[in-house]
Specification:
The chain is an alpha+beta fold. Helix content is about 20%, strand content about 25%.
């Protein structure tokens, strides 16, 4: 049976079972990663970059060519070192599922949705595995798109990897040499890892901040703006993004919850980078509030009774009794809810081959 032509072409022709291509030895992805950090201030690195403790991460361009991947992706595929930069993402799908995967990614590029979840079969060195994958689309300055994929092997296929612990130092090592400042904390908000070259610009010695508490407002080793950040929401699972002024420059701060493979928040990860917005541009956007003239009398604010007098339209008739008010209320439809069984469950996901779009 003939299949539809691919929107993206795979680079490898035979990748069944353990026949996936071996990774390249050249680690030339670091300059590309550095380019991403300086390319677009709206690049969505926060939520995706920091969930890398045990989840694989892959960045692709609009042609599904791999631009970056983390070490967790290598280990998931079955290798301890090397690089798949330059390979096609479709190379890691079985031949029977490539057309379905191609259509799913193409629909994300051309549709209105900015992300999707898929349950897919992917190839590893040890054979086919089931993956839960999240994909986020991010627009580049040239009008094209990058796709950010994070995922993990499904629970039934992850037992063999249970004993393989992740070293957070290996993950933070990818930021070494980049013009950013990255840190990780434990559940008590004490810094356990730092990386990046921006610490020197901020006047911070990375060795001195290890073990410091981000909730200690009297800590002289950290910049003031890091101590003023409220990390309670981050520990509750929410992300934080803000712009701050520091030493005549504008910096962007992103703080994300650091979760383990079971979804439990075990700390935070943060990133600081220089904003493309200048201090003058930022000041121009702020609303200038004129100072009050002490000689001018302050006009009182109208009371609620007076504001009702200027309402447009006929006055609202006050009901004579509660029963009269209740008689105007229509009963709510219970078509979607059963009072005995609770809310109706969501429809089961539909599958196309081995690629299933998750709700």
């Amino acid at each position: 049976m003939a299949t539809a032509p691919f929107h993206h072409l795979p680079h490898a022709t035979e990748c069944e079972g353990s026949g996936i291509p071996e990774p390249n030895r050249e680690n030339f992805w670091l300059p590309k990663l550095a380019k991403f950090f300086g390319e677009d201030a709206d690049a969505k690195w926060g939520g995706q970059m920091f969930r890398i403790s045990n989840d694989m991460m892959v960045v692709c361009d609009s042609d599904l060519t791999v631009l970056y991947h983390n070490r967790a992706f290598l280990r998931t595929i079955g290798y301890q070192s090397g690089s798949y930069v330059g390979a096609s993402l479709l190379d890691f799908f079985p031949a029977r599922d490539r057309n379905d995967a191609d259509n799913a990614f193409y629909g994300l590029e051309t549709g209105r949705a900015s992300g999707l979840r898929i349950n897919a079969t992917m190839l590893t060195k040890g054979g086919e595995k089931q993956f839960d994958i999240r994909v986020v689309r991010s627009r580049r300055q040239d009008g094209g798109f990058n796709l950010y994929l994070t995922g993990r092997i499904r629970l039934e296929d992850s037992r063999e990897m249970e004993e393989k612990s992740e070293n957070p130092g290996e993950e933070l090592a990818i930021f070494k040499g980049l013009p950013i400042a990255v840190w990780r904390t434990d559940s008590k908000l004490k810094i356990t890892q730092v990386s990046g070259n921006l610490w020197q610009t901020l006047g911070v010695d990375g060795c001195e901040v290890l073990g410091k508490d981000l909730t200690d407002s009297k800590n002289p080793a950290l910049p003031r703006f890091l101590l003023d950040v409220d990390y309670c929401d981050t520990m509750a699972g929410l992300s934080l993004h803000c712009d701050v002024e520091w030493q005549e420059a504008v910096y962007e701060i992103t703080v994300e919850p650091f979760v383990n493979r079971y979804g439990k928040v075990i700390g935070t990860m943060g990133l600081v980078r220089t904003s493309k917005q200048t201090l003058q541009e930022r000041s121009a956007k702020h609303l200038q509030i004129p100072s009050l003239d002490p000689t001018e009398p302050i006009k009182p604010i109208p009371s609620p009774e007076k504001t009702r007098e200027i309402e447009i339209g006929p006055p609202i008739q006050k009901p004579e009794s509660v029963a009269a008010l209740r008689s105007n209320i229509q009963p709510r439809s219970l078509a979607s809810t059963d009072v005995n069984r609770g809310p109706v469950e969501k429809p089961v996901m539909t599958k196309t081959g081995s690629i299933a779009l998750a709700n």
